[in-house]
Amino acid sequence: MAFAHSPARRAALRGAAGVALLSLAPRRVRAQQAAALVDIAGRRVQVRLPARRIVLGDGPLAYVVALLRPDEPFARIVGWGDNFRSADLGGYLAYRQRFPAIDRIPTFRGSNVGAIDIELAISLAPDVVVLNLSSRPAAESSGLMARLDQAGIPVVFVDFRTRMFDNTARSIDIMGELLDEPGRARAFLQFRQAQIDRVVRPLQEVAHRPSVMIERAAGLYDDCCLSYGDGNFGELVHAAGGDNLGSHWLHGTFGTLHPEQVIAADPEVVLVTGANWTLYSPAGDWVNLGPGADPAAGRDRLRRLMQRPAYRALSAVRAGRVHAIWHPFYDNPYYFIALQRVAKWLHPDRFASLDPDATFRELHARFLPVPYQPGYWLSLDNP
Prior knowledge:
Number of strands: 14
Strand content: 15-25%
Shape: globular
Distance between the termini: 42 Å
CATH superfamily of the largest domain: Nitrogenase molybdenum iron protein domain
Number of helices: 16
Structural class: alpha/beta
Order of helices and strands: HEEEHEHHEHEHHEHHEEHEHEHEHHEHHE
Number of domains: 2
Oligomer: single chain
CATH class of the largest domain: Alpha Beta
CATH architecture of the largest domain: 3-Layer(aba) Sandwich
Largest sheet: 5 strands, parallel
């Protein structure tokens, strides 16, 4: 990753250390103290708490910060990956409308943490760098971890992606410790668990698990079919009472299925992920999902995607059991919303009274600083 600033700008950052965003005065100031924190990788890390200057290795971690500090979510962020904007433009714009100063947060480009401009990262003078657990191999092999350690900058790993059900609670607690918001962290986790239980408990004796083909980022690339193994959305589909095709062939969280495998399996349900990827692929056939997305345009895209060779003859397509859901649920603590929506698609009779839209509205009303806008999922059969 390379930070989007010139050498002259680097000098300014060394002096001012990104104070532009910190002009949003914190609600309260508690004296920092050295503390030991155990991150999701099991590492014991010495950090000065509360952290006042934070670099987010992945921009979408902003969704975690927003629910813990809704009044001023970005006041402590001094740098982040630009994939909040590039991988979820709709979500980014919703937050920019409420917090226009986010455009001034220094960003680093790309998706490989190992290519980060280390000198500039150090010049931002963060109290801590927060990385996703999946970034650990690249952070170690690139020398990023060693250089930050030499500079006295701690790295803390969290995980909302690889094992979302197992690691989200501890990761939220970690972020709550960093931000001095343990009470909000607990309140969110209680809400999250209650919403998960509304799905998991009724499925304890499910008789039939519909087979599900999940295509990751459908239409963003020419090839078909990126999918999930037994982690991430694969894990979510299993928890929602489905049988994920990718779990039968893919070893690990992510992988690719051949169209012939999909055709031979003839899944009962097709689920694709999408988002506003205008900055990635302006001419792509991806399904635009996210706050305020146009469902009619999204269905047109989804119909075109189902005309590809892997799908056009499937019984799921003929029956209209084809759905699209917001891709950023895949590394987001709000994934339990997707769990409810997928469970209702797979078992509509069992979950007739479950309203994922109402759950998402309540999440926004109780925890988030931006108003809820529908647009996070759609179906060809318009349920």
